[in-house]
């Protein structure tokens, strides 16, 4: 994907338009405050940029939903000075919110909130071999007083997995994707995924109670502050033809 982005940059620059790739997973190093457990944001939110470009809208857990593939997309971006006519942002929400709630039902870490997400908790699942895990593993190695045990930690499967994550990104950007798997938004879900993913074994009575409370709150007009903050990119729930 980044190769395709770079080729587009070259194509634009050959025609006199300066351009640069915006990496989808690169975080701003100036924002790092020494806390590896803190959720790190990217230089530009490509999900919000995608909404502005008319590709889709944000869902209950603030992931991008597209009409063609739901949340099952990977984004990249090119920043350029080329003059062009832009697409328009979608007005209608693609997400049904808590009345669907399949992302919340399937989440193994129970990180989905009411039009929000517990990002640090989610990071433990979607990026199991990310920087936080790496820092913790190195701390265990450094603080281990027994030399034999220290060597064992260095040669452990955890060290191997972290090395793989640095080498290929495995476990950093390819961790848990259950919310993407079960989301019914997208033309691909009915045709290719529903028969295998319709049942959600992670669902519990407690999760359903939370969803019911969210639905009741919305019917009473009590939208959470998180919705108000993101409503431009979530879109109008009233305009969703399935709502």
Written account of the structure:
By secondary structure, the chain is mainly alpha-helical. The chain has one domain. The chain is 44% helix and 7% strand. The protein is built from eleven helices and six strands. The strands form three sheets. It has a two-stranded antiparallel ribbon with strand order 1-4. A hairpin with a 2-residue loop joins strand 5 and strand 6. The longest helix is centred in the C-terminal third of the chain and has 15 residues. It is globular, with a radius of gyration of 21 Å.
Task: Give a short summary of the structure.
The chain has 243 residues and is mainly α.
Structural class: mainly alpha
Q: Pick out the low-confidence regions.
A: none
Gap between N and C termini, in Å? 35 Å
Overall geometric form? globular
The helix content is 40-55%
Average pLDDT over all residues = 92
Q: Work out the number of β strands.
A: 6
How many domains? Answer: 1
Main sheet: strands, sense, barrel: 2 strands, antiparallel
Strand line-up across the major sheet: 1-4
Total of helices? 11
Which value, in Å, is the CA radius of gyration?
21 Å
Range of strand content: 5-15%
What is the N-to-C order of secondary-structure elements (H for helix, E for strand)? Answer: HEHEEEHEEHHHHHHHH
């Amino acid at each position: 994907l980044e190769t395709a982005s770079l080729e587009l940059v070259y194509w634009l620059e050959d025609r006199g338009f300066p351009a640069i790739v915006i990496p989808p997973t690169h975080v701003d190093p100036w924002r790092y405050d020494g806390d590896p457990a803190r959720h790190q944001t990217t230089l530009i939110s490509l999900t919000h940029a995608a909404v502005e470009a008319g590709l889709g809208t944000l869902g209950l857990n603030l992931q991008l939903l597209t009409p063609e593939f739901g949340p099952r997309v990977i984004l990249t971006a090119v920043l350029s000075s080329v003059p062009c006519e832009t697409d328009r942002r979608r007005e209608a929400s693609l997400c049904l919110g808590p009345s669907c709630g399949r992302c919340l039902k399937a989440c193994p870490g129970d990180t989905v909130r009411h039009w929000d997400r517990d990002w640090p908790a989610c990071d433990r699942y979607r990026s199991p071999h990310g920087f936080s895990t790496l820092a913790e593993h190195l701390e265990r190695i450094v603080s281990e007083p027994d030399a034999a045990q220290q060597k064992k930690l260095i040669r452990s499967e955890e060290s191997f997995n972290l090395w793989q994550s640095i080498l290929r990104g495995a476990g950093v950007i390819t961790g848990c994707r259950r919310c993407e798997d079960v989301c019914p938004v997208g033309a691909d879900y009915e045709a290719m995924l529903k028969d295998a993913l319709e049942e959600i074994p992670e669902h519990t009575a407690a999760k359903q109670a939370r969803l019911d409370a969210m639905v009741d709150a919305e019917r009473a007009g009590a939208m959470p502050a998180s919705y108000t903050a993101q409503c431009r990119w979530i879109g109008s729930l009233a305009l969703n033809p399935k709502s």
